[in-house]
């Protein structure tokens, strides 16, 4: 046994595997580290695009559709984007009891405060959003887009758009920066950006599969072009850099909604050029 130990010691003395090689530092785990010269020439990771996500409350009937918002955030995360979430600091149009599907009498809520639930508290007043600091903007759907970001739910084509929402859409458009919208949110672009191309899905109800198909006619009446698309697809208006997808305008399985939103997010990120 003593002879074996002596033989092993002599081999280590001749060929020490743990000895540092020229230009390398030894690491206790994971192998050698680059030399100082190699580290000096290593390029820093390229930052991802900065994307603003604009919410309209919390809950499909009176705010942001949560599954759409979550799907957008997942796809942005996967795409390496740096995300900042915004919402207007204004009262909701009303509060809906999501079990009964009816307004809750006497109850009021704030859009920014409610949106903070989805943002896990990390949210900024929409009044502070500017195109200068971001590469793209994305608007999830939900009735909040038609009730809190605009009056579309009540006034249809004659609706008014929230002042900051209108400003943000125009700023990003004029700066040539992409805008993504899904579900009912494309009506915001149709109202503010004349001649824009958007989709809210199909133009016929098709037995209830597209229960809000009539929205397409309102979009056309606003002077925008409506493009028929499937729920897993996204339409890209290359000229205006506006990307839209139907999402829950279609009554379908959740994974189809997720796929369509993924297509929208990928196109938006591609249009940033980063």
TrEMBL record:
The family database entries (Gene3D superfamilies) matched by this protein are listed as: 3.40.50.880
Q: Name one GO cellular component term.
A: mitochondrion
What are the entry keywords? Mitochondrion, Transit peptide
Species annotation: Moschus moschiferus
Q: Which InterPro entries match?
A: Class_I_gatase-like
Q: What is its main location?
A: mitochondrion
Q: Which domain of life is it from?
A: Eukaryota
Coiled-coil intervals: none
Location(s) in or outside the cell: Mitochondrion
Task: Decide whether keyword Transmembrane is in the record.
Answer: no
Keyword Nucleus among UniProt keywords? no
Q: This protein is called what?
A: Glutamine amidotransferase class 1 domain containing 3
> What gene makes this protein?
GATD3
């Amino acid at each position: 046994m003593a002879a074996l130990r002596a033989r092993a010691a002599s081999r280590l003395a001749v060929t020490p595997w743990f000895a540092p090689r020229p230009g390398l530092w030894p690491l206790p785990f994971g192998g050698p580290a680059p030399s100082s010269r190699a580290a000096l020439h290593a390029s820093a990771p390229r930052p991802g695009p900065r994307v603003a996500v604009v919410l309209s409350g919390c809950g499909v009937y009176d705010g942001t559709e949560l599954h759409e918002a979550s799907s957008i955030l997942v796809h942005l995360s996967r795409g390496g984007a740096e995300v900042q979430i915004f919402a207007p600091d204004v009262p909701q149009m009303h509060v809906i009891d999501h079990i009964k599907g009816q307004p809750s009498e006497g109850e009021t809520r704030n859009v920014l405060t409610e949106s903070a639930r989805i943002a896990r508290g990390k949210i900024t007043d929409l009044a502070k959003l500017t195109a200068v600091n971001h590469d793209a903007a994305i608007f999830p759907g939900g009735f909040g887009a038609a009730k809190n970001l605009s009056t579309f739910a009540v006034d249809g084509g004659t609706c008014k758009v929230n002042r900051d929402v209108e400003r943000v859409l125009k700023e990003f458009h004029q700066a040539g920066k992409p805008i993504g919208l899904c579900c009912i949110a494309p009506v915001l672009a149709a109202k503010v950006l004349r001649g824009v191309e958007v989709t809210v899905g199909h133009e016929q109800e098709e037995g209830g599969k597209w229960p809000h198909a009539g929205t397409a006619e309102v979009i056309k009446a606003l002077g925008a072009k409506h493009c028929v698309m499937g729920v897993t697809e996204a339409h890209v208006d290359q000229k205006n850099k506006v990307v839209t997808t139907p999402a829950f305008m279609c009554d379908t399985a959740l994974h189809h909604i997720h796929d369509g939103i993924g297509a929208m997010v990928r196109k938006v990120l591609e249009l940033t050029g980063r």
